[in-house]
TrEMBL record, chains A, B:
Organism, scientific name: Paenibacillus dokdonensis
Name listed for the protein in its UniProt record: LacI family DNA-binding transcriptional regulator
Database matches in InterPro entries: HTH_LacI (IPR000843), LacI/GalR-like_sensor (IPR046335), Lambda_DNA-bd_dom_sf (IPR010982), Peripla_BP_I (IPR028082)
Gene3D superfamilies: 3.40.50.2300, lambda repressor-like DNA-binding domains (1.10.260.40)
The keyword DNA repair is annotated on this UniProt entry: no
HTH lacI-type domain residues: 3-57
Highest taxon in the source lineage: Bacteria
CDD domains associated with the record: HTH_LacI, PBP1_LacI_sugar_binding-like
PROSITE patterns, per database record: HTH_LACI_1, HTH_LACI_2
Length: 336, 336
DNA sequence: CTGAAAGCGCTAACAT
DNA sequence: ATGTTAGCGCTTTCAG
């Protein structure tokens, strides 16, 4: 069906090698023959077969991004950073949605072994450190966003969860809150664990006793936040602020409050995490923590490409980026 | 670096052909040899090279999804439907983000020509009908979601924008509204055009004169909705309801109202489109139009795979699916 | 049931 | 500056 390089060569009256040269490096060819070749290419609408090219060159110029859940804007922002930087370096980016399933992550990681992808970026993977290291040990190129994996060949980028959690808490404490709820994501997630740790440390720093009944687990989704709030209300214990482990759950808090007629921020302050695109459009605008998502994606893919190119250990492997607390209407209310 | 089929064959004491048979069809092989082969495969951690396989078989089992913007939950829901159905049929799905740029769409479409993908699904493409038809004419497999393209080889699925727009309008009219704003997306988009058409038809059906000053263009994003509302408020003309061409813009309306102290729904009714995941969590919950997004993805990919398999015209090519108006708190208020 | 060998379409080393 | 050719790793006839 499709034209092959040999057809182009015949039409242009040259050899396949010359066609290849024109289409690739493009030096060492007369401009006259180049024109002949390009004419034939156009006329036959020739597109080099990627499989043949990949097989011959032992590379694909493809990078896979394995995201935990493309429904979450946190991931899609990062992906845009990856995409644009990779594109500038002639790599194509393919997004894979793991749908929160470790088996799917594992399945997509095999794209490295079967050489469908030259490299892969995992965003907050669910696979264990060991499993990911094992892949890197076999010589494949893999980078990770949202976690630090101790392996000399795995570039990592992440924010300090503990640090920004403490900042959030300091902000709420400064507003006069003492009974602060922490709405966790699913407890297995490393982000959950570290954000909780920051919450606890801040309490300790301020000599406020930890009350376990103020911590509820959600699932990083709106409904999980909503259900968790209902459970809290049912406990009939007083609290004046909620620190939700992400913005989606904070939205669930909004809903639960709306149903009970509880006004934000005067009756309840709310802070989320991730600076979801919609968070500034809700009423009141949601205070949240912003991570440089786009930049994180761009940095890590650049680092991955570097590594794929010279295939040697480079000094800068781990990047820790700062987050920024955005105080908006949902918590900007000094409690007397 | 990696083991090849010939290594496996040597280790198992068989020929490469036998290894291939074991790994593929798996019939016509003694269970004894199969075991030997599988053992060697495991020990060598063998993964067939995809490029070689693709080249030999002239297919990749890859399907590409070209989405307009993966930041928008409308697309990601559809993609999940595609993904899961394709997965069940042994196809891998790769998501490509066109970032609203026609050139990027075009670039990703070349994945068909270079045989990186066996087929491609475009979700609300920006390319012209002609351009898409041309690709199909060359024998490539392409399917479209969100638009009907008249071509015997292009499966299409979409909802009737005009129809549900009229339903939205009937609902608002039934609530007693007469001065209804229409907040359009970018005017070039076919969805914008058709939704506007429904708006106009509903007015006509009800003998309500069309007032152009009640129509504003947005960009399908929160900020566009917000800015459009500000322009409307500045006009100082009365209106009691807003029909926004999607939920994102409706959120911008919420923000604009919050800033002016306008209460939804009693001072202003708002209806969106798409049933974005977050729309039921905002306050008040947003009335919207639900499309069976997941199902649409699943149907079209199944149809595309059918076509790739028997490569012949099938009767059912165009699917029109019904949408459903979800009346929630933002418009459920009878005006006296 | 299994093996031998051709060939998918391209690039790169070598030759001219 | 251009052509010839081997071979990337696999599957699939065709033989046996």
């Amino acid at each position: 069906m499709d034209a092959k390089i040999i057809d182009v060569a015949a039409k242009a009256g040259v050899s396949p090698a010359t066609v290849s040269r024109v289409l690739n490096q493009a030096n060492g060819v007369t401009s006259k023959t180049r024109d002949k070749v390009m004419k034939a290419v156009d006329e036959l609408n020739y597109h080099p077969n990627a499989a043949a090219k990949n097989l011959r060159q032992q590379k694909t110029m493809n990078i896979g991004v394995i995201a935990q859940d493309i429904n979450n804007a946190y991931f899609t922002e990062i992906i845009k950073g990856i995409e644009n930087m990779a594109y500038a370096q002639k790599y194509r980016v393919f997004i894979c949605d793991a749908e929160n399933q470790p088996e799917k992550e594992r399945e997509y990681v095999t794209m490295l072994m079967d050489r469908t992808m030259d490299g892969v970026i995992m965003i907050t993977p669910q696979l264990s450190d060991e499993e990911i290291c094992e892949v890197a040990n076999k010589g494949y190129f893999i980078a990770v966003i949202g976690r630090n994996i101790e392996h000399p060949r795995i570039p990592c980028i992440y924010t300090d969860n503990v640090k920004f959690s403490r900042q959030v808490m300091e902000h709420l404490l400064a507003c006069g809150h003492r009974d602060i709820v922490f709405l966790n994501g699913y407890p297995e997630a490393i982000d959950s664990y570290e954000r909780l740790e920051g919450y606890l440390k801040a309490l300790k720093d301020n000599q406020i006793p930890f009350r376990p009944e103020l911590v509820e687990n959600g699932d990083f989704n709106e409904n999980g936040g909503y259900e968790a709030m209902k459970r809290l209300f049912d406990k009939k214990i007083p609290f004046s602020a909620v620190f939700a482990a992400n913005d989606e759950m904070a939205l669930g808090v909004y809903q639960a409050c709306a149903e009970r007629g509880i006004s934000i921020p005067d009756q309840l302050a709310v802070v989320g995490v991730d600076n979801n695109r919609i968070s500034k459009y809700v009423t009141p605008p949601l205070s949240t923590v912003n991570q440089p998502k786009y930049t994180m994606g761009a940095i890590i893919v650049e680092r991955l490409i570097d590594q794929m190119n010279d295939n040697q250990y480079e000094d800068k492997r781990v990047f820790v980026v700062d987050s920024e607390l955005l105080v908006r209407g949902s918590s900007n209310f000094a409690r007397k």
